[in-house]
Amino acid sequence: VQVVESGGGLVQPGGSLRLSCAASGLTFSSYGMTWYRQAPGKERELVASISSDGRNTNYADSVKGRFTISRDDAKNTGFLQMNSLKLEDTAVYYCQLVRGTVYWGQGTQVTVSS
Length: 114
Hints:
This protein is an all-beta fold and 114 residues long. It has strands at residues 2-6, 9-11, 17-24, 32-38, 45-50, 57-59, 67-72, 77-82, 91-99, 101-104, 108-112.
């Protein structure tokens, strides 16, 4: 099983990024997906989650209205669209897949800086 995040980078405040979570070696459509992030010196926190059928989503209060989680099961890929980025969104973003067993990606760095 492989879970690989991509799409991170350096962006100015107010900008946008789209993170991807590509999975292989499992039946992606059977897994719930959650994005977490961890800033330096802070604990890992939940950012957004989506159920395996895509019907239910959940967001941290700090990102509601700015971030959108989605999935394309045909491509075995999940996404996190991040708009109106703020300095405090700077962190390593991780994708987690869960169906009993938990799988994590290696993370992708998002840096919001002017």
